[in-house]
TrEMBL record:
Name assigned to this protein: Uncharacterized protein
Keywords, comma-separated and alphabetical: Signal
Signal peptide: 1-26
Length: 137
């Protein structure tokens, strides 16, 4: 009887060990607000960067002013830049890099949160922003 329990325990342990790598490859669930605009973020220093919006008009008007497609932006205290797999990227370790992001600003127009997105997600967000702008005109 005791041997049967040991075999069962070993079988359960083997199944658990085999399923662990599968769980580590699961897609990370990220809650990006639908209102978060898309832009390209270049990290210039640990305290600031440049947002380039291209032709996403409503974001350009609100954040950058008329006729401008990029602007320097300061980072809010506690800024969070989240990678594709949900890891927090320290700004000091990614200086000089450019990411396609969706972002949120704080009340002082400083970057509060940026989610690094894939090329497909970025293109979809830009298309949605362009469509929303066209409908508002």
């Amino acid at each position: 009887m005791r041997t049967r329990r040991q075999v069962l325990a070993l079988a359960v342990a083997a199944v658990a060990a085999a399923s662990a790598p599968l769980l580590s490859h699961a897609q990370v669930l990220r809650n990006i607000p639908a209102t978060a605009p898309a832009a390209q973020l270049t990290i210039n220093s640990a305290n600031g960067g440049t947002l380039s919006t291209g032709s996403t008009g409503i974001v350009r008007i609100l954040l950058l002013g008329f006729g401008s497609s990029s602007a320097d932006i300061r980072f809010a205290p506690g800024v969070r830049i989240l990678s594709l797999d949900g890891r927090l990227l320290p700004t000091s370790s990614v200086v000089g890099q450019t990411f396609k992001v969706r972002y949120q600003l704080d009340l002082y127009q400083q970057l509060l949160t940026a989610w690094v997105v894939s090329d497909d997600d970025y293109k979809a967000a830009v298309a949605a922003q362009s469509q929303a702008q066209a409908q508002s005109q």
